[in-house]
Amino acid sequence: MRKITLSEYNAIPEDYRGIWTVERWDLPDWAEIREKHIGKRIMMVYDNGTCLLVEGLSFEIVDDSSWKKPEEVRQEIGNRYLKFHSGQVHEPHYADCIIRWHDTLETEEARIALAMDSDTEKDDEIFFYCDSLDDLKSLADKDREDFSVAGCLGFGIYEELL
């Protein structure tokens, strides 16, 4: 089943989305399947031809209205970095973040390395490697990877790497 955010659904032109209101008594089994269609959100998509998708049957809408916008995530990363840096003399080795997968829209915690070499004893803990703080901030945008950074929990250092 395809997942789509509410904001992505609302961005579809109204001519290509709506609510199923048409009765289809011309279909032999309409009485049995009517409740799966009437009142459900629908959208037209091109997927090897034009298709009509019905909410609950072929797509699910995930409410993203409470999600942070990319600019809010970038600001949160900057604020957490400043908070970390005010008490440290070393640059952070990593950031603990919340990431959101683009295909499933699921979130999970992940450790993202900052300007740190790969192939260290810490590789198993690291989900992704960035070259800089700006590189980390750019992960808040949806078009870079298969995931995006949805929040920042904080920064840290590995004492044994100092």
Question: Briefly, what is this?
Answer:
This protein is an alpha/beta fold and 162 residues long.
Physical arrangement of strands within the biggest beta sheet: 8-7-6-9
Number of helical stretches of at least 4 residues: 4
Share of β-strand residues: 25-35%
Low-confidence stretches: none
Secondary-structure-based class equals alpha/beta
Provide the helix percentage.
10-25%
| Rg calc | 22 Å
Q: What is the residue-mean pLDDT, rounded to a whole number?
A: 93
User: Termini distance?
Assistant: 47 Å
Total strands? 9
- Element pattern in H and E: EHEHEEEHEEEHE
The major beta sheet can be summarized as: 4 strands, mixed
The rough form would be described as elongated
Describe this structure in words.
The chain has helices at 6-11, 30-33, 70-86, 133-138, and strands at residues 2-5, 17-19, 41-46, 50-54, 59-62, 94-101, 107-114, 128-130, 147-156. The chain is of the alpha/beta class and 162 residues long. A hairpin with a 3-residue loop joins strand 3 (41-46) and strand 4 (50-54). The N and C termini lie far apart (47 Å).
Provide tags for this entry:
162 residues, alpha/beta, 3-stranded antiparallel β-sheet, 31% strand, elongated
SSE topology:
Elements: E1 2-5, H1 6-11, E2 17-19, H2 30-33, E3 41-46, E4 50-54, E5 59-62, H3 70-86, E6 94-101, E7 107-114, E8 128-130, H4 133-138, E9 147-156
Parallel strand pairs: 1-5, 7-8
Antiparallel strand pairs: 2-3, 3-4, 6-7, 6-9
